Amino acid sequence: MLILASNSTTRAMILKNAGIEFLQKGIDFDEQSVRASTPEALVCAIVKGKLKRFVSIYGAKDNILCADTVVVCQGKILGKANDFHEARQMLELQSGNRVDILTAMIYHTPSLYLEELAKTSYYFLPYEAEDLQRYLDSKEWVGKAGACMVEGFCKPYIKNVSGFESTAMGLCVETLYPFLEA
User: Fold this and answer.
1) To the nearest whole percent, how much of the chain has pLDDT over 70?
2) Which residues are bridge partners to 102 per DSSP?
3) 3-state secondary structure 49-76
């Protein structure tokens, strides 16, 4: 059985929609304590930290899946917004710009260690002020890297995309699927 070491409802939905059976066991991990020189190194260090924390609590005998996502726009790393004001700033930065969404994933089993870093790039049209306000008021951005929701609010503003939507949502299931053990 696959163990999703995450509290993310979106990652759980991705696995469910892909028909992958799993058990969700979330862990607490201080992502803010991780430092790195590049967005790629940061997201990889966070996911390694999450795996280490999970193993320290539950052990490594199961098939464990950990993932993390960061958003990059105009050279700025956008994590999870701490409040409404910060979410607005992040989204205004993304409006009409290229946004790179990086997701790191580790799939660890007793016989396999798979580590992957995937990127999906979006080119967004400028956001309409009323739509942006509605999205901010909805609080659907809470817990989302960069306050970005490509499967929801951002979808009608996608001008161009390169990569998998699942990567942008937090878990590249297309890469994971071939490695799953029965």
Assistant:
1) 99
2) 70, 119
3) HHHHHHHHHHCCCCEEEEEEEEEEECCE
Half-sphere exposure of 122 (CA within 13 A, CB side): 28
DSSP H or E segment with residue 92: helix 84-94
Tokens standing for 148? 């970005």
Q: Which of 87, 100, 96 is nearest to 138 (CA)?
A: 87
Catalytic positions are: 68
Is the CB of residue 104 less than 8 Å from the CB of residue 117? yes
What length is written for the chain? 182
pLDDT recorded at residue 181: 62
Helix H or strand E encompassing 19: none
Q: pTM for this one?
A: 0.89
Residue 73: pLDDT band (50, 70, 90) is very high
C-alpha distance from residue 90 to each of 23, 76, 108, 113, 157 (Å): 33, 9, 33, 34, 15
